[in-house]
Amino acid sequence: MYSPITGTAAGVPFTALPPADNGSAPLIVTWHMLDPPRSNAAFAASLPMNDLPAWRVHLGMPMCGARMVDGSTDAIVELMHKDALMSFLHPFVRQATEEFPAALASIRAQLPVNDGPIGVLGGSLGGAVALRILADTEIPVFAGAVVNGAIRMRSVVDLFPGDYPYDAASEKVVDSLDFVAKADAIASRAPLLVVSGELDHPALRADAFQLVEALGEPSELLSIPELAHPLADEPGIEPAPQLPLAREVDAGLTTWFRRHLAGAG
């Protein structure tokens, strides 16, 4: 298929997949999961969207892939155990969102992408980044999508063992990452495809339904039978052959973004 282009954009590692003609085309940016596929290269292999006449640039999340500490995920696990919300989930989403404007400018300088609105896609925790771009920034977006996304961060925190010890600061943070509450802001920016595996964590699946209901048309839900939370097998760091269920997700994303490419200018 197409040879990936690897590089960095303002310090953010990326894997870029060109359109068939390698020429100027709209841009779709993604942020990967922290479950498999847990790097930009692995996410590109799982959801390449090869039939789209667009550049797909898969960005690395903090401390993942090329930014792993000492080549392992041990440092991430340590942050999870220290404080799942305030040391891990929130800082990762905040950093990925804050570093994106400079990364986007660098991508535009390096690749022949259109200067119109972009597409955004996020998986799991990367979904919270895509949703923040929609809800909390003014970066022009023609369409968005999330796959088993972190739609309400409180639901994600609840997946960790024990009762989280919320205080005033952490309550404020977790409420700021409730994208059902920000549905009006998202709906005013771009249509959103919410992809939800039928075997995903029940709370995350419930959040997906509630977000789509709150968004209204033209946003949509795509439910994938038999899909659990991950899109790839462990360890999920290096590119691997696309799994059949990931192929279903990939097809749905391709159809969605193709439908809305006219809005990319």
Keywords:
single chain; 265 residues; alpha/beta; Rossmann fold; eight-stranded mixed beta sheet; 17% strand; globular
Q: Summarize this, please?
A:
The chain is of the alpha/beta class and 265 residues long. The protein has helices at residues 40-46, 74-82, 84-98, 100-110, 125-136, 153-157, 168-176, 183-187, 202-215, 244-260, and strands spanning 5-9, 12-17, 27-31, 55-59, 118-123, 141-147, 192-197, 220-224.
Walk me through this protein's architecture:
This protein has a single domain, classed as Rossmann fold. Helix 2 (74-82) crosses helix 3 and helix 3 (84-98) crosses helix 5. It is 39% helix and 17% strand. It has an 8-stranded mixed sheet, sandwiched between helices. It has 265 residues and is α/β, with parallel strands linked by helices.
Biggest sheet record = 8 strands, mixed
Strands ordered across the widest β-sheet: 1-2-4-3-5-6-7-8
Classify the helix fraction into a percent range: 25-40%
Q: What is CATH's topology name?
A: Rossmann fold
Question: What is the rounded distance between the termini?
Answer: 26 Å
Q: What is the CATH superfamily label?
A: Alpha/Beta hydrolase fold, catalytic domain
The low-pLDDT segments are none
**From the 3D coordinates, which CATH architecture would you assign?**
3-Layer(aba) Sandwich
What's the total helix number? 10
Structural class comes to alpha/beta
Q: How many domain units?
A: 1
What's the assembly state of these chains?
single chain
